[in-house]
From TrEMBL:
GO terms for cellular component: cytoplasm. This is Micrococcal nuclease. It comes from Serpentinimonas raichei. SUPFAM superfamilies: Staphylococcal nuclease. Pfam families: SNase.
Length: 183
């Protein structure tokens, strides 16, 4: 009987099948951010509202307001708000870009990653220290993108670039409610 058992192929436990399936799904989806599932928008940036919002004109002359995914730049009335907008304007205004998006926000803006010559402009804003990684919405990013954004923010903070030169910068998500109370 022992010889028969030794000769028979052994089956792996059922939980290993589920684990392998879960791993395969995780790897398949991990290489692309969640918002990369939609068709990218190609066009020219015709306006920069602030450090995290632009308007893109497509080939059919359609205007698309775009909110940069994964970052939150200082408001114009905040320290570094003007610098953030100036930096983004200098980088992308009148440039041909690609916007990779999957949704719109309650204001009708596309939420996406702005690519200039294949480079992630959202990430560049973090590296320059002119935006925060918007962790409240990080779930909308792929895991690799989330990691890159968090790392870029930490590096800017560590080197005191941009808004991180201030000892205690106020994130825009805290600043906005304070402004509503003052009105």
């Amino acid at each position: 009987m022992n010889a028969a058992r030794a000769a028979a192929p052994t089956r792996s436990p059922w939980h290993l099948h589920w684990l392998l399936l879960a791993l395969a799904v995780a790897l398949a989806t991990a290489t692309l951010p969640a918002h990369a599932l939609s068709s990218p928008l190609q066009g020219r940036v015709v306006a920069v509202a602030d450090g995290d919002s632009v308007t893109v004109l497509d080939a059919q002359q359609g205007r698309h307001r775009v909110r940069l995914l994964g970052i939150d730049a200082p408001e114009q009335a905040q320290p570094w708000g003007a610098e953030s907008g100036i930096y983004l304007r200098a980088k992308v205004l009148q440039q041909e870009v690609q916007v990779v998006f999957a949704k719109t926000d309650r204001h009708g803006r596309l939420i996406g990653t702005l690519l200039l010559q294949g480079q992630d402009v959202n990430l560049q804003m973090l590296r320059a220290g002119l935006a925060w990684h918007y962790k409240a919405y990080a779930i909308e990013q792929g895991w690799l993108e989330r990691w890159r954004y968090a790392r870029a923010e930490r590096q800017a903070q560590r080197t005191q670039r941009g808004l991180w030169a201030d000892p205690a910068p106020t994130p825009p998500w805290e600043f906005r409610p304070q402004q509503r109370v003052k009105r």
